[in-house]
Amino acid sequence: MIASRPYANAVELIRAAHLRPTRQRLALARLLFDSGDRHVTAEQLHNEAVTAQVPVSLATVYNTLHQFVGAGLLREVVVNPGRSYFDTNIRDHHHFFHEESGQLTDIAGDRIEVKELPKPPPGTAVRRVDVIIRIAEKNNDYK
Questions:
Q1: With 1 labelled, which of 36, 39, 42, 114 sits at a CA distance of 20 to 30 A?
Q2: pTM as predicted
Q3: Same domain, 107 and 142
Q4: Angle CA 85–87–91, to nearest 5
Q5: Measuring CA to CA, how many Å separate 51 from each of 30, 39, 48, 56, 101?
Q6: Euclidean distance between the first and final Cα of the chain, in Å?
Q7: pLDDT of the residue at 35
Q8: How many CA atoms lie within 13 Å of 104's alpha carbon, on the beta-carbon side?
Q9: What is the pLDDT of residue 52?
Q10: Are 80 and 95 in a shared domain?
Q11: What is the distance between the alpha carbons of residues 73 and 64, in angstroms, rounded to a whole number?
Q12: The domain spanning residue 37 has which CATH number?
């Protein structure tokens, strides 16, 4: 049996997205995509890279994540101004946002029905509708 190259899947993924497979992109792609669907912040991915002894700056992590979003490999989920998660699941779906823990949980796209969207401004078209349902523990007083 011939062992596959450790970066083979990452190389294919990055090349299919028309990006150059740099060492840093390959390492970050492996961290992101080798564990199935997940939500991760840039800081979390940077910490994973440091733990895996991948020499990469936080700025490079941000740049790479945004390049992956632009290439259609990730979705950015903005939960608050200045707080984004990057989602490896690019299929149609929505999210629960757990306010105490900061975790996102997927909701299947067919579980939410959006009716009567407003007409978009002239010269534009609706590309996607993202629903984020913010949840808190029942015993917390929420204002």
A1: 36
A2: 0.86
A3: yes
A4: 145
A5: 14, 18, 5, 11, 22
A6: 60
A7: 83
A8: 26
A9: 95
A10: no
A11: 11
A12: 1.10.10.10
Cβ contacts of residue 50 below 8 Å, gap of 6+? none
The series of mean pLDDT values per 10 residues for the chain, 143 residues long, is 55 91 94 92 97 96 97 94 94 94 94 92 94 88 56
The total of structural domains in the chain comes to 2
Verify that 29 and 75 share a domain, yes or no. yes
Q: Is there a single domain that holds both residue 68 and residue 109?
A: no
Do 117 and 126 touch, CB atoms closer than 8 A? yes
Q: Which token pair is 26?
A: 């390959």
| Amino acid letter, residue 137 | E
Same domain, 71 and 101: no
Domain of residue 36 covers 1-90
